[in-house]
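Progress narrative, Year 2. Work on Adenylate kinase active site lid domain-containing protein from Cafeteria roenbergensis advanced from sequence curation to structure prediction during this period.
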Amino acid sequence: MAASLRAIPTRVILEEIQRRVFCVDKEEKRVILVGPPGCGKGTQAPKIVDNYCLCHLATGDMLRAAVTSGSKMGKEAKKIMDAGKLVSDDVVVGIIKENLDREDCKIGVVFDGFPRTVKQAEMLDEVLKSRGEGIDGVIQMDVPDELLHARITGRYIHKASGRSYHTEFNPPKVAGKDDVTGEPLIQRSDDKPDNVARRLATFREQTEPVIAYYAAQGKVVKVNADQSIDAVWTDITASMDKVGRA
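Result:
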């Protein structure tokens, strides 16, 4: 252990100590961040993680990590994906269970992109109940569909780095080129106009009932995401204060 610590730069160790001191008195929170494609979850989720010392459990990231790690659930997910099929709820929830015991999840969790259906919400509740835990609140990021369409179809990325741009809200210095490398930007297939309406319809059909499910439990706090990034963050911090554990 000592030898391995010596290999870590002092700056990194000090930053981790500072983070742990910052997090020591943080309140336990297990929250769901939910909203339609283009609502800004990807911008706000990391800020919630950093400011409240929670871990970030996003379905896509977890699936990829599980497959790479070769965990029991990861092997099952890989088998299903290699067959060109959708990963079942049982496997997705199994991967969630594998991640809940991570050290960075001890204080709490931000669930992002999960649960997508009421069935998944019910399964998640059962998993947490078995651990003596539960969902403390749901932060619903609300944006009109017409604005979402403009947000999504204007997004472009630099594939190698993941840097993202928007033709209106965050344009590159040179149209169609990455600011750092000058390489061409691409538009994800899901962000092309023909697919946007389908994605929004899927959200309305599958995930809005999840919001209603938790609203019936008095756990939903709605945030107007049709504002500046800073204004949305101000509203999210106010909402997080409302979803603390009783």
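The mean pLDDT is 87. The radius of gyration is 19 Å.
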